[in-house]
Please model this.
Amino acid sequence: MPVNDAPDREDAMANCALCCVAGLVGSTAETERKLVQAELTGGRLSAEDIFLEYATQKLNIARSNMGRETLPAQVSGVQHWLTSHHGLNVNAISDTTNPLTLGNLVDRMNQLAIGTRFVVLVMQWGIFAGQASAAHWLIAERIAGGFRYTDYQLDVPAEMAELLQRRRGTIPYGAPSVTDGPREAFTAASDPGNRYMALSVANAAGEATGCCVQCYITTATCGAMGLADDCDELESLRAFRDEVLLATPGGAREVAEYYATAPGIVAAIDRRPDRMAIYRLLHADHIAPAAAAAAAGDNATAHRLFRAGALRAAALAGSEQLLAASS
Model:
């Protein structure tokens, strides 16, 4: 959910504020932000102003009911985006009026299959007020032995990162954070007082999917080639990941490193005018032959080709920093 995809700190904070009110994401938030600024003030709004003005004037929400009334709209907006833009089935686990403790949420998520992805809403919960005072979105994936959480909303413009770092002090803003437990925007670690709900995400056939929720290099490449999320290449490489790499400590570490760096590599490639040429090259030289090797049981060749493809993707992305992180 690219809510922070903005040119500077002010726009990024305004986009986030608007998303928190109306459940808008990506370019929709950017478009609506400009309309709201022109309509309500005729100019630029601070993050606090855009939140309050949009909620109170356009949505007629009383300030005392902000958490109670804005969060359902936010959840609805995210669910609509995943369904309408990407054809995904989204089912709610709990809701914003009766959110769960982290332990209860994990128990519910554990009832679904390994590979299921979740969009998790974390709430700073006011016990006596019965509503959230702040909220934050994370992505989670059920893997063997637990969950992998990815926080894309920590990937903010440099100026905004500096401001938030000074304000909160303990959270490393920058590249997406990938951890085995939720790192939250409010605190460095999970707060027992917070409450949670989640949306489980599946494709139209009801199968777990990572496409459009987390774009890794293989998924992005196959998508660029017009291949479905259940194409032979992705199915073979996912089986190789789950049954071969994750079965060993070294392989599991490599997978974790890949998840930490791949979203940034894909984002860098997508900013290039020659992105399709890069994806065609990666598919022909690395992903397709690696998948074929994995399907044939040649794990050593599959690993070599896949690893080389990740390094080449980082190099083609044109970022020495990304290449260093992947080596």
Notes: The beta strands are 89-93, 117-126, 131-143, 146-151, 177-179, 195-202. DSSP finds twelve helices and six strands in the chain. The radius of gyration is 20 Å. The CA atoms of residues 15 and 31 lie 9 Å apart.
